[in-house]
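Lay summary. Proteins are chains of building blocks that fold into shapes, and those shapes determine what they do. In this project we predict the shape from the chain. Here is one chain we studied, written as its sequence of building blocks.
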Amino acid sequence: MRKPPGLQRRRHTWHLRVTVPETLRSVIGKREIIRSLRTHDYRQACERVSLARAEVDAMFAEARRKLRSQPATRLDAHEAKAAVLRWFWESERVGDSELPPDDIDDAEQEIGIDVATLSKPDNPNTVASTQQEAKRIMAENNLALDDTSKDYRRLCEFVRRAMLEQSHRTMARLRSDYSAQYDPLFNGVGPQVPEPPKPEPEGVTLGELCDLYLADPARARVTAKTRLDYNFTFRLIKEVMGAEKLVRSIERKNCRAVQDVLAALPPNATKRWPGTPLCQVAAMAKEQGIAAMAPRTANAYLHKLSALMRWAVREEYIDKNRAEELSVDEPEVHPRDARRPFSTDQLRRMFGAPLYRGCVDDEHGYARPGPNVIRRWRFWLLPIGLFSGMRLNEICSLRVDDVERRDDVWCFVVRPDNDGGKQNGRLKTIAAARVVPVHPMLIKMGLIKYADGVRDRGEWYLFPELEPDRRGYRADRAQKWFSRFMEKAGAREPRTSFHSTRHNFRDQLREVGATRDVTFALCGWSTGHVSDTYGGGVRPGTLAECVQKISYDVDHMMSG
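And here is the predicted shape, written in a compact code that computers can read:
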């Protein structure tokens, strides 16, 4: 028995798997339809697959009906050419059947004026007449294009060329020349052919491909940061290759040109040189010896270019990923040297700053002594990081309700969704959702009392002053402040930043003999092993027994 198309076995059960046609994905909202046939038996699956396929075909038919009943809001170049060729063909059939005018000279003069006018795209009369015909074509083809869109402007340009071609041919017919053709776009289109020829598809441009990629339903839930990164990448590749470049004409050398620009581009280029083309910024930086962005950052952008090309291959716009395995050279650094924990001397310098010596909390942590010590987010970031191992954005995104008692233990609850707070509503990984007991030192420093005070004021977040940036991150302001704080405290050293507190915490877990399960539970890591999904995890009380053993040589300096 021949295996029916689309029949697949998944986990011992037979399924029907059908790819949704690209034109219907906007209606159905999926790239694939997978239907379980609810059987382990192959013969029974073959009997059921026909009915399942009929149901899917009915779904596709309904989607097509919806598409036909709804005006289309997009029109690519290939579709626009086809619509205008049909309009031109029908117009030529009408023109060919008309009788010649009585006064040939007057007719030639009028047509000559039309030719002169239509030859100027910006002429008001040209704009008005082409838009009038474009509206008629849109009505006949059930289109609803935005007047300001690129698709509409392209349609109007094709209509102008068609009207100009029609005027040229009418002039030729007045001179008894019935074979003249002028614009190559309309070659072979005339009243003598039964149907207008369909233009060969040119494929999508790079600019169109970027728009299609971001509009794919699979990217509907990407974070604001990821979308901004894609926008930067797409701006760069469109500058380097050209937004109108056909995707199928992209070569390896074009992708390498993007790689070369990224290798020389300084960090924060769009902020430091707003409005300046990125290629120009890279050239200037290279000439003036301005340091380039970190190779790891450049490679992250290159990976997004490769992701775009992979998607184009999958959607059959191109046949091969020309950006595969491109990368900027990164210096070889042992993973343990990529980021270091804070040394005891660094911690002493930071906890010796006025911020922790009873002074008023200001923007820099250096302020005059005051009678009422105000402990806000700046005061709490470093000790929470050292005694919890939480990432900076996780700390900055804590809600008041995320400090709660579990198993009779005060805990930080790192939740998978914090009303858009954590990384625009998402954690770094699924395993990052966890419970971390509050260390006794933090309680001694007054963290619970602080949280109660914030709650009594009716605030939602534990550190309400930290507003999310345009990417949805609440850690941006805190990251910049902590960098300045380290500098002023004389604690800046290579390969250390706030993330070093996570390394300090991990080292302390080693010192107190924490088991692998406890360590991974506290740090929010996954082993990737199937055993992770079994059981309810380590109890908060057990985690607290481990956390409370953690201590640093500077504990005596943390009381403020």
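What the prediction tells us: Residues 364-372, 418-426 have pLDDT under 50 and may be disordered.
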